[in-house]
Design goal:
The structure is a homodimer. In chain A, strands 2-3 form a two-stranded antiparallel ribbon. A two-stranded antiparallel sheet of chain A has the order 4-5. The longest helix of chain A has about 40 residues. By secondary structure, chain A is mainly alpha-helical. Chain A contains 29 helices and five strands. The interface between A and B is large, with 114 and 111 residues. Strand 3 of chain A pairs antiparallel with strand 3 of chain B, so a sheet runs across the interface.
Amino acid sequence: MSFTVTVRCARRAIGTRWLLVLVSLCVCVCVCRAASPQEEEDSAMENIVTEKRAEESHRQDSADLLIFILLLTLTILTIWLFKHRRFRFLHETGLAMIYGLLVGVVLRYGIHMPRDGTNVILNCNVNASPATVLINVSGKFYEYTLKRVITSNGNKVDDMSDNENEMLHKVTFDPEVFFNILLPPIIFHAGYSLKRRHFFRNMGSILAYAFLGTVISAFIIGLLMYGTVTLMKHVGHLAGEFFFTDCLFFGAIVSATDPVTVLAIFHELQVDADLYALLFGESVLNDAVAVVLSSSIVAYQPAGDNSHTFEGMALLKSFGMFLGVFSGSFSLGVATGIVTALISKFTKLRDFQLLETALFFLMSWSTFLLAEACGFTGVVAVLFCGITQAHYTFNNLSPESQDRTKQLFELLNFLAENFIFSYMGLTLFTFHNHVFNPMFIVGAFLAVFLGRAANIYPLSLLLNLGRRHKIRSNFQHMMMFAGLRGAMTFALSIRDTATYARQMMFSTTLLIVFFTVWICGGGTTQMLSCQRIRVGVDSDQDNSMSIAEGPERRSTKQESAWLFRIWYNFDHNYLKPILTHSGPPLTATLPPCCGPLARFLTSPQAYENEGQLKDDDSDLILTDDINLAYGDITVNTDASGVHTSSAGFASGMMSDDLDRELAYGDNEVVMRGTRLVLPMDDSEPPLKDPHF
Amino acid sequence: MSFTVTVRCARRAIGTRWLLVLVSLCVCVCVCRAASPQEEEDSAMENIVTEKRAEESHRQDSADLLIFILLLTLTILTIWLFKHRRFRFLHETGLAMIYGLLVGVVLRYGIHMPRDGTNVILNCNVNASPATVLINVSGKFYEYTLKRVITSNGNKVDDMSDNENEMLHKVTFDPEVFFNILLPPIIFHAGYSLKRRHFFRNMGSILAYAFLGTVISAFIIGLLMYGTVTLMKHVGHLAGEFFFTDCLFFGAIVSATDPVTVLAIFHELQVDADLYALLFGESVLNDAVAVVLSSSIVAYQPAGDNSHTFEGMALLKSFGMFLGVFSGSFSLGVATGIVTALISKFTKLRDFQLLETALFFLMSWSTFLLAEACGFTGVVAVLFCGITQAHYTFNNLSPESQDRTKQLFELLNFLAENFIFSYMGLTLFTFHNHVFNPMFIVGAFLAVFLGRAANIYPLSLLLNLGRRHKIRSNFQHMMMFAGLRGAMTFALSIRDTATYARQMMFSTTLLIVFFTVWICGGGTTQMLSCQRIRVGVDSDQDNSMSIAEGPERRSTKQESAWLFRIWYNFDHNYLKPILTHSGPPLTATLPPCCGPLARFLTSPQAYENEGQLKDDDSDLILTDDINLAYGDITVNTDASGVHTSSAGFASGMMSDDLDRELAYGDNEVVMRGTRLVLPMDDSEPPLKDPHF
């Protein structure tokens, strides 16, 4: 028996042991990485030196990436340990940051290695900076590409080329990597896994928080920061320029809240679904708003020399740009989503799951590239593409591809997210030009707090006037508390760190992210119990409850306002039949003059099963059976195959339908966190439906 | 009725219509891409110009990638059409090349745009070429990074900066992208999806073809090319230097055969499994051999000035390097595979599939980076890592993760492969420095043919002396015919195109790839029927047949030589129990003195089911039951939990066991192509087993 106990203990200890091994491996790699460049300095032949240097640089890049991969591996193992022991005070992203910090400390203080003087300063009289330079070194031409502009004074450049740690220099990635490689999968996944039922139910409120709220928050923070900066200037704590537009820019970037940490805990604890939807919807959409807002602020350029004064024209231009970029990105995203839906509907690609998944992936990616190539914002386009894909294309995919695509984006999201957070940790110690200004930091924390408050409380007050199902004060406090800043804020702030103002913003933003993720993220469980928000609500149970219970139902009906109902009807009667295999046949919903077109666009499946119109569209199965039972669409088929119906489409009946559709549409939603999503189990709910 | 027909026709035509739309979209993007740079030339402010240029360059990069993504989308849709209509003359890779070619033609001849003169030539007296250059342009510092060395003479550089098409210049990727991003998933997938049963059964022959055969082929081709080059020099058709090492290098790179095209068809037609295994095993392993061989040849540098004469010492050094790099990469790959297996065995990570999949992915990727960072070959390491993962780690994963990892790498492989092939097509027209020399090309085609022949026929002759189950002459002809060149050859040849010799090689290699993929790949079906090779062999049926039939069985026993049997026993008794949850308990197989260690390493599962030792390891279930029935391991459990056994481990009985294990171990193998692999169905085969 004692043997068994020993084995158990040893087995338990082994998890921790792996972590230790990995940590030491990480450190090893760091040290090796630092040591290797000195090995190969002897060779004399110039050509070989160049070749070796290229090889060396490749090796070091590999080692850099390896550090991150080991960090991620470490994070994964620790997360597992935490999950295994149900330890909820630190989310995986917080953990990734801690590991990043540790490696950053090692790189910064553990290893010191002077730069090997490969930087050469050439003075030349070119009047513009070319994108590529050919340098003639004793007969041979070397092609150089422009990497960045160093706008600081000469001292700093000398400083950089001499005293800087080569190691630190190398571990930093091109900021654009975050924007072009790591953010898109995160944002797409957010859109693709949006809980549609609760999202649509609370759409008005979510849009208000995301659009109006973010703009309010950005301006409040901007104004407060301008006050702080003015104060700093008077006291003499400001070492560089800091304009009002910079303040507004700061407001815009720190207004983007991040859903990851809080929502993972919400999901695990099964917190009230409406609160979940409000927070998730807001944080997904406000990312998009913040991106476009910040780029519009950057584009605010008054004419003439006094480039930092206020000017009405320029403001208007900025506002126009905001609208243009946002709507452009939105429509591009929706358009590629629709194209994918049409392709997947009209080809029999579903017989070949690999092709189907590949097409889905490529089309989603192409949204990003298309938007970037057109000068719109790829990230925003990808978000709306994700939502469209989830709403239409998803229904056309084969079950295998549905799983595949969900799992693929879940994995990409997980990796990208943890990479960003561990890089954040690393960057606190390895970024060169940190400007930590205590006064600015205190001001920023205060401003962020007030900005969030000015977003949540007044808007909630206003929204509650219109909502029957009020947003209670404990929900408001929770939303206030859950305004974490994360990947998007970081990516926006690291994008440009050339000026003093931007450097100060970057350093402060880092601290804000750390604070919110660790303190607010870690305190979520406490805050939930403190605010007496019900947990352990089974989402499915909640579904059937909200349908079974009379009062709740009516409140939903109330909420889905006329605008939304019109959209819903349009979607249900025209868009879904056009883009998916489901819905009432278009021949029934379109006016008779469009007959041939309607016949062409309607999927054969829409006719085939007269008894059960939409067998292919998993999230409409239930709705539709009931639809027929209620008789608000009566399909008549005559001999020629033309379908007509006597439809009460815009009638009040529809909103029951709507409610039910939204209720059952979430089973396929990918959950954040680590649970595998099983194919929807559609055997249970109908039995609980009171109409049967 | 006529209405139905119209709809059908329209529906059929729609696939083709999508293709047209996409083609035109592709062309549109190309044109827009070319037109955009000229838009924003007016602005005067220098800073804004730089910013705009950076933005412009980003936009163009997006558009470049977009072209490829549209190309891939197009390819996917066309493949679907082909598969849908069972059209087998053109494989997807061949198709991707054709589309690439078309876009290349458009880029080359359709759009002409002079380069906008951003290249500036600086003459400076730096004695070495630095990795980064800071250029002081009127007070501001611009940081440039080294991109490439242009070793040609001054004229060419001028030529480049003036007359070159900016467009063409931009669509070319850094060759290292192929090696570091696109090849690893392809090669890993090849290793991960290796058909283990037939691979192990024919291991001796596969190793002979892959190692000996590739070296023979490389040297034969090298010698023949040296002859050609010498002839060309006499005739005066050679415009630059071409050394013997270059010839050998060419031999090495074109000796890497590519499995993709032929094997996809083999899989679809269910060709004889042994032939499949021979071809697949050979082409997977010879990629590794070719990579290491070519890098060893490049490293062949005789001392002193006469750097292109023969020298024994240098040859020996090259040979040593070959062995060192190969074994280093091999052991690194196997090592990370083992580490992953241990982690997945000793942690309960399988409860969280997302974490498990992420860990698997990261560990596999880290193999590549680790090997590159250590100066070994990442691609080779990744191959062996894939094989190890499939053999050990795969058994520890949860069923969901098994599916997820397979599907993930299948998708990555598919995308990477098609990307490479479409880039190949594109590059025929967009690469600047093509050197098409008719004599060299004819010589190369001849040499490749003879080299392949010198690999297959003599080796088959030798191997048939030892094999009972002979490699028949129609198999040999088929192997000869199926020696396509693909992604690896291309990646090796594009890696360095600096010298005249390398440029000529690159152009010739491209033609060889085109020819083999289109002609040999397209003619596979014809060749199969011409050689009367049986098709439509169900792999499972084949399994049971080869076991049920007496003579076949004995031949297999014959084949699995003593060396292999020793390895198998070692694997079965020690490695599998250590690395997976399966196998006989180590307490039974290790000597008693290792008791505590054995207890620690043995998985609880190995004890739990005494009746059925290895329930967790899907590919051993059957073997083991029979094992117990045959009694070659008798497990005795005493009260303290220590297991002992009287084992006849190295006995001849084992090879039945081995054969059976290999026979049923393939169900979980991912098939190339587009079929989804279902979890293994392990209910049928035991019934067919003659021992029951």
